[in-house]
Amino acid sequence: MVDWKGLAKKSIEKSTEVAKQGVSKSKEKADEKKREKALQEEQDLAFEKMVLGASLRAEKLNLKGKNKKQILEAEHIRNQQIRNNQFVFEKPAKTTVIIDDNFVRITHKGITNALTVGSSGEKVIKISDINSVQLSPPGGIASGYLQFTLAGNRNTQGLSEAVKDENSVIFIKDDLDMAVVIKTIVEELMAKDASGVTVNQQDLSPAEELRKYKALLDDGILTQDEFDAKKKQLLDI
User: Fold this and answer.
1) Is residue 98 a contact partner of residue 87, using CB atoms and an 8 Å limit?
2) Would you list the DSSP string of 208-234?
3) Coil, helix or strand at residue 127
4) Both ends of the chain: CA-CA distance in Å?
5) Are the C-beta atoms of residues 120 and 113 closer than 8 Å to each other?
6) What gap in Å lies between CA 37 and CA 88, rounded to an integer?
7) How confident is the model at residue 204 (pLDDT cuts 50, 70, 90)?
8) How far apart are the C-alpha atoms of 102 and 193, rounded to whole Å?
9) Hey, where are the domains in the chain?
10) Arithmetic mean of pLDDT, 141-159
11) Range name among 64-78, 121-135, 147-161 with the lowest pLDDT average
């Protein structure tokens, strides 16, 4: 005779065990997701700290919206480019400036530059040919400009002339920090060239790097706290 009662009991016990195993697996998956989330948040925080620590405009970045990750990733790329003396100005017209040993290389791209500057491609300027570096910060809705004045040339008289000058870089307020860095680096190289000393910009001494950041502090690009942090980093104190 079949023990229906016993079979029913075993069936219930098996179902209960399966249910317990299911709950256990679900809990394990939930715990794993929590661990992964916590690890990701920790990595994101470390990345944010690294990017902002290297940025010259950290306080001006808007990280409160949904695009925080994309903004930080873009700033990280920008930081790396600046560290390698590569400066990319996206607006109002894309222009790239590269400081390579004893040369400044300016590349104007796009239709806007073609219409205003009237040329495209790379313009190479020897540091020894530069008489001065003129920086006009943006104001209101107007862009700023950075101009390299060469022997025999006169300084640009305002933005309307700068946009037509192949030796000038037009930039918006968000990129003022890069313009200041370029001016500082080129003027340092000009001084070295005038004294007959050859310098590789990639191997600037801590003191020279510090002077560069001091100029950014004086121009209001860096805060005192940011300057102090850079000073400690450069002097290893």
Assistant:
1) yes
2) HHHHHHHHHHHTTSS-HHHHHHHHHHH
3) helix
4) 89
5) yes
6) 35
7) low
8) 9
9) 6-83, 85-195, 206-235
10) 80
11) 147-161
- Residue 17: other Cβ atoms inside 10 A: 10
Q: What does the buried/exposed string (b/e) look like for 140-154 if buried means 16 or more CB atoms within 10 Å of the residue's CB?
A: eeebbbbbbbeeeee
**Strand runs (DSSP E) across the chain, as ranges?**
86-89, 95-100, 103-108, 121-126, 130-136, 144-150, 168-171
Residue 230: burial class (beta carbons within 10 Å; 0-12, 13-18, 19+)? buried
Which CATH number applies to 85-195? 2.30.29
Number of neighbouring beta carbons within 10 Å of residue 45: 10
9-52 pLDDT, tens digit per residue, is 666 666 667 666 666 677 777 778 888 888 888 888 888 888 88
Q: Is the pLDDT of residue 163 over 70?
A: yes
For residue 10, the one-letter residue type is: K
- Residue 60: CB atoms within 10 A of its CB come to 12
Cα 106 to Cα 159: distance, rounded to the nearest angstrom: 18
